[in-house]
Amino acid sequence: MIGMSYKTINGLMKHLRGNSISISGSKQKKHLTNYGYFHGYKGYRFFKNEKNRIPYTEYREIMATIDYDTKIKALFYSRIMFIETAIKNITIESLLRHANTEEINGVVEKCIMSYKNCDQHSTIAERKKYEKNKLTLQRNIQRYLEREYKNDNHKISHYYNNYSGHSNGVPIWALIEVMTLGDFGHFLSCLKHEVREDISNKLSIPVNVDSYRNLIYKYVFFLKDLRNAIAHNDVVFDTRFCTSKPNRGMCLCVENELNIPNIQYKSIVDFVALICYFLYSFDVPKSEIRSFINLFEKYTNDYYNSVDKKVSIRVINPNTAKKINALKARF
User: Fold this and answer.
1) Rounded Cα gap, residues 105 and 153, in angstroms
2) Is 101 left (phi over 0), alpha (psi -120 to 50) or beta?
3) What does the pLDDT look like over 198-210, one tens digit per residue?
4) Where does the chain show beta strands of DSSP type E?
5) How far apart, in whole angstroms, are the C-alpha atoms of residue 79 and residue 81?
6) Which of 148, 187, 190, 189 is nearest to 170 (CA)?
7) Helix or strand or coil: residue 319?
8) Does residue 137 contact residue 112 with C-beta atoms inside 8 Å?
9) Is the pLDDT confidence value at 51 over 90?
10) Range 141-148 contact pairs with CB under 8 angstroms and sequence separation of 24 or more
11) What is the mean pLDDT of the chain?
12) Which site among 18, 84, 98, 186 is 20 to 30 Å from 74 CA-CA?
């Protein structure tokens, strides 16, 4: 069997030149080596999908795009992690207050929607759906605990191994701390309305755009995609990481609270606005939020000035400057 042919770095550089992209010199060769042809050039040659090719003519423009994307991920990372931690802690506080216990089974019985504790106007079909969701959640919780114990996660194994310690097993806060953001979002979606109401109020999510109090878990699912893209070093500058379409309430919430027009989450600046919204909800000082906005503006302007206009117009949404100025005026 004849093996598949492959190209050396020199061969890949020649291939790029054959595709009308100027590349030469040891610096660009080293960059292509470090970032890789497939992760680097192939990953950044289009905006959102391969039909929207970015009209690069020089490899330095690809280098600039990768650098811009890398800086955005670094800028977002600590803020996204902070938001995840804050939402989880606010949820834990609400659960403990509503359940009056930190024991997992007690929290599930008192805070999770089920056949018995749902709204009195719920139909039989809806009650069965809630009970099914509760049973599925309970199975998932047990799988979580089993997996983390097998992996010797001290946050979980401590409560099984330390017999003289916690008498009621793993507390709810320890479980939530080890949950992935996606599973945490599912947990939130199963909570009773009054518990979600409590959490939503603490996050300043207005009821006029969220009457059913669903935005809290929808935002978590939404942020999960961004968090995972950053964690796995995937492309973020064109928001291709989005796997779900936001509902109107998710857009209106940020638009109304921050006075930012036309939030659709189709450009990265809209995620800057979303992060600002959450930071403000958590009482982060306005000076820190302004610093975050200013850095994004600097990185965007630096990129704009480092590539041909035909490239920047594909990468940077035309409303970016307007939205940045609106954010700066708000904070």
Assistant:
1) 21
2) beta
3) 999 999 999 999 9
4) 46-47, 49-53
5) 5
6) 148
7) coil
8) yes
9) yes
10) 141/104, 141/108, 141/175, 144/175, 144/178, 144/179, 144/183, 145/170, 145/175, 148/178
11) 93
12) 186
8 A C-beta contact, residue 45 and residue 19: no
Global pTM value: 0.91
Nearest to 270 by CA among 242, 290, 298, 291: 242
Q: Could you tell me which of 297, 287, 288 has the C-alpha nearest to residue 323? A: 297
* CA gap 228, 268 in Å, rounded: 15
Q: What is the distance between the alpha carbons of residues 110 and 98, in angstroms, rounded to a whole number?
A: 7
* Residue type for position 284: V
Contacts of residue 311, defined as CB under 8 A and 6 or more positions apart, other chains included, come to 54, 55, 56, 61, 65
User: What b/e string do you get for 73-97 counting C-beta neighbours within 10 Å, with b at 16 or more?
Assistant: bebbeebbeebbebbbebbbebbbe
The rounded distance, in Å, linking the Cα atoms of 323 and 331 is 12
CA distances from 104 to 63, 138, 142, 154, 298 (A): 49, 10, 10, 18, 46
For 43, the token pair is: 């990953």
> What tens digit of pLDDT does each residue of 99-147 get?
999 999 999 999 999 998 888 888 999 999 999 999 999 999 999 999 9
| DSSP run (H or E) holding 18 | helix 9-18
3-state secondary structure of 167: coil
Radius of gyration of the chain (CA): 24
Joined together, the tokens standing for residue 3 give 């093996």
